[in-house]
Specification:
The chain has 18 helices and 19 strands. The chain is an alpha/beta fold and about 475 residues long. InterPro entries: 4pyrrol_Mease, 4pyrrol_Methylase_sf, 4pyrrole_Mease_sub1, 4pyrrole_Mease_sub2, CobA/CysG_C, NAD(P)-bd_dom_sf, Siro_Cobalamin_biosynth, Sirohaem_synt_dimer_dom_sf.
């Protein structure tokens, strides 16, 4: 990379733009917005520059080197490559900062793409290689960055020294802002433009005890692109993350690098850390004043023991939040081309788990063995033969379509299809994590399937999901 990203204060500095077309107009807008003292040299002006003419000095002339005298920044933005080259060479010989709009590789200065929430600015560049990619990134960042963060930046600036005096360590200050920045009360003040109320609220929070908190976060079914924006925000604010075994390496890579990571290794049939110990860990970490993310595959309230963990936290007086995730029943079936409902096949969908607590009661098989509904079974591989037998005994036709979705939404996704009387045998062909779908909609997988995962190295993939 030949260019060093810098933010340069351009206000009141003399700048020269050579050119009077739409390209020049884009540069003029950027410079004027930052208070540059602008001169423009061109025999003609496009309509937009005519509208802005009162804000700069227009030299109705062709370029001459004397226009470079006393300039700080020069932009060569004509539609004539020879003129642009002459401007560049003359400015470069004088040691001026120069941008040549038709040749970013030779420019001493590149105008970056900018996402702005004044006074907050995010600037980035592809070095001129892929302007389309810069535009795409700008659109994404513009959608992601909250509109009120500029106001937050202003308030944070006013309180910076007070926060520094109240909280001596940088880690304590980071935790304070991580805890407060997404608060609904604060954000309501900021969105209203009521900075005085926002400042007062933050000062009150600064005096309050700095307590820990647990955020229960759903990681989704596997594809990291299905992680919610709120979940990503929490991963990047966490002090410590307790994660299950089914959370992919790609999602774990999004965690704040300084955060402590603790694997609690839970998956069906294998709990490397008992639930009671997980509960104790959550309480202890929060009592130490940390922001704790409990990261669970899928949705934390869908067969994930999330409610049990929150009950423990509530009993211990620990604050908590819940960030929902896309559950496997929605994510894996969608990637397999299986709709949960369909006017011709199913008017309802029922989600059950293949196992329950010890001595747990059997499900109501008669209600599950209904036609024109979709039955989705989590963690059912080990009891698939029993499920097959009980559903058939209670009247569900043996010819009912079934589908087993192995490692749904990931590059290792595989869908095995058959009929209910084959379920026990089909289950022997797949590995965990797998989802069982029973009902007429399962037959649509062949015609509606759209996700075609590319083959990946099995060894590395097995490591990731082992």
């Amino acid at each position: 990379m030949e260019h060093l990203p810098l933010f340069i204060k351009i206000k009141h500095r003399p700048c020269l733009v050579v050119g009077g077309g739409v390209v020049a107009a884009r540069k003029v807008r950027v410079l004027l917005a930052r208070g540059a003292r602008l001169t423009l040299v061109s025999p003609e002006l496009c309509p937009e520059l005519h509208a802005l003419q009162s804000q700069f000095v227009w030299q109705n002339d062709v370029f001459d080197e004397h226009y470079l005298d006393d300039q700080f920044l020069v932009v060569a933005a004509t539609d004539n490559t020879e003129v642009n080259a002459r401007v560049y060479q003359a400015a470069n010989l004088r040691g001026l900062l120069v941008n040549k709009t038709d040749d970013s590789k030779r420019s001493a200065v590149i105008f970056p793409s900018i996402v702005e929430r004044f006074p907050l600015q995010v600037a980035f560049s592809t070095g001129g290689d892929a302007p389309w990619l810069a535009r795409l990134l700008r659109a994404r960042l513009d959608a992601l960055l909250p509109k009120h963060w500029g106001q937050l930046s202003k308030v944070a600036g006013k309180l910076r020294q007070k926060v520094k005096r109240s909280l001596s360590s940088s880690e304590a200050r980071r935790r304070f802002w991580a805890r407060t920045q997404d608060d609904t009360t604060l954000n309501a003040f900021l969105k209203q433009g009521n900075l005085a109320a926002a400042e007062l609220w933050l000062q009150q929070e600064l005096q309050a005890p700095q307590t820990g908190e647990v955020i229960l976060v759903g990681a989704g079914p596997g594809d990291p692109d299905l992680l919610t924006i709120k979940a990503l925000n929490e991963l990047q604010k966490a002090d410590v993350v307790l994660f299950d075994q089914l959370v992919s390496a790609e999602i774990l890579s999004l965690i704040r690098p300084e955060a402590e990571r603790i694997s609690v290794g839970k998956k069906a049939g294998h709990h490397s850390v008992p639930q009671d110990q997980i509960n104790e860990l959550l309480v202890k970490q929060a009592q130490d004043g940390k922001r704790v993310v409990r990261l669970k595959g899928g949705d934390p309230f869908m067969f994930g023991r999330g409610a049990e963990e929150l009950q423990t936290l509530k009993a211990a007086g620990i604050r908590y939040q819940v960030v929902p995730g896309i559950t496997a029943a929605a994510g894996a079936t969608a990637y397999a081309g299986i709709p949960l409902t369909h006017r011709d096949h199913a008017q309802s969908a029922v989600f059950i788990t293949g196992h329950s607590k010890q001595d747990g009661k059997e499900p109501d098989w008669s209600s599950l063995a209904q036609s024109r509904q979709t039955l989705v079974i989590y963690m059912g591989l080990m009891r698939s033969a029993h499920i097959q037998q009980r559903l058939i005994e209670h009247g569900l036709p043996a010819s009912t379509p079934v589908a087993l979705i192995e490692r749904g939404t990931t590059p290792l996704q595989r869908v095995v299809r058959g009929t209910l009387n084959e379920l026990g045998t089909l289950a022997e062909q797949v590995v965990s994590p797998s989802l069982i779908v029973i009902g007429g909609v399962a037959a649509l997988a062949d015609s509606l399937a759209w996700f075609n995962p590319q083959p990946v190295a099995q060894d590395s993939a097995q490591e990731q999901y082992a």
